[in-house]
């Protein structure tokens, strides 16, 4: 298949491109920087509204992973504007490309996030049910992001990613650094839910969506066994052979992180019902296996 992708050089994109190429697909990556093509990876310049040249190329699937990082900088008003507008603008531009393509791709996979759901310690959030959105910046971003993608006119899947665990990106490198300095443990009261997923299962889920026409709309990309943060910290400490007893007070985290403290102090108990209904099998359904695999790497 021919795949048109944004965000192909990011954390998830890099892992996904590797698997697409390994199975024989050709990937066209929209980029804002000059890069060197390879046999199966082609970079298309995408600057200031410039449409990429796709003449003679029949695109089967579009994948939109573009957007400024959410967790790496303090949420000033200018940073929040960048986070929101980078997603809206990239999605709107990709949708415009889709409208011009002939024949039309069969699928748009648009990145999204479980930040859509309100934080709760008791509610199970299923992608087979209707849930009201949270009232915060993350939910606002997700709503705008998904709205822009709905205009594609083709089958569209909003992949609501949970906490993605990998050794070369996401939150795990920062957390392991804390434990390396013997400073790991519960964050706040530790009762908040972490709906996590191993990066390998993220890639497998995206490939599965490409092959499963029944999947449409919001799809939760999380493992089927979310854990509370204090349990996550305990198991991470065990995997690293480090203690997990130093609690960080919520007030200190809010002082350091500001508004984005909700990323670590609050959480949702999210369940991947649609994937399971289609018999998707997770390689790492439980956090113990995921952490053992990643730490041993």
UniProtKB/TrEMBL annotation:
InterPro entries, per the entry: DUF1731 (IPR013549), Epimerase_deHydtase (IPR001509), NAD(P)-bd_dom_sf (IPR036291), SDR39U1 (IPR010099)
Protein name: Epimerase
Family note: Belongs to the NAD(P)-dependent epimerase/dehydratase family. SDR39U1 subfamily.
Provenance organism: Listeria booriae
């Amino acid at each position: 298949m021919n795949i048109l992708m944004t965000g192909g050089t990011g954390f998830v994109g890099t892992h996904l491109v590797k698997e697409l190429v390994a199975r024989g697909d050709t990937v066209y990556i929209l980029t804002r920087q000059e890069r060197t093509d390879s046999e199966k990876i082609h970079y298309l310049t995408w600057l200031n509204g410039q449409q990429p040249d796709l003449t003679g190329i029949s695109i089967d699937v579009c994948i939109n992973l573009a957007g400024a990082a959410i967790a790496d900088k303090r949420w000033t008003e200018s940073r929040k504007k960048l986070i929101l507008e980078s997603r809206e603008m990239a999605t709107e531009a990709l949708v415009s490309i889709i409208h011009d393509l002939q024949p039309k791709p069969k699928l748009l996979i648009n990145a999204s996030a479980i930040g859509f759901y309100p934080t709760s310690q008791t509610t199970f959030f299923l992608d087979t049910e209707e849930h009201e959105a949270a009232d915060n910046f993350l939910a606002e971003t997700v709503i705008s992001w998904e709205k822009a993608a709905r205009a594609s006119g083709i089958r569209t899947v909003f992949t609501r990613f949970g906490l993605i665990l990998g050794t070369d990106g996401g939150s795990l490198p920062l957390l392991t650094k804390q434990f390396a300095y013997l400073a790991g443990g519960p964050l706040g009261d530790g009762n908040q839910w972490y709906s996590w997923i191993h990066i390998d299962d993220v890639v497998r889920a995206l490939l599965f969506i490409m092959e499963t026409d029944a999947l449409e709309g919001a799809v939760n990309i999380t493992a089927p066994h979310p854990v509370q943060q204090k349990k996550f910290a305990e198991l991470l400490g065990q995997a690293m052979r480090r203690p997990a007893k130093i609690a960080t007070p919520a007030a200190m985290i809010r002082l350091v992180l500001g508004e984005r403290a909700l990323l670590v102090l609050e959480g949702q108990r999210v369940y991947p019902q649609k994937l399971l209904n289609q018999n998707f099998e997770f390689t790492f359904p439980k956090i113990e296996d995921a952490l053992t695999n990643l730490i041993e790497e």
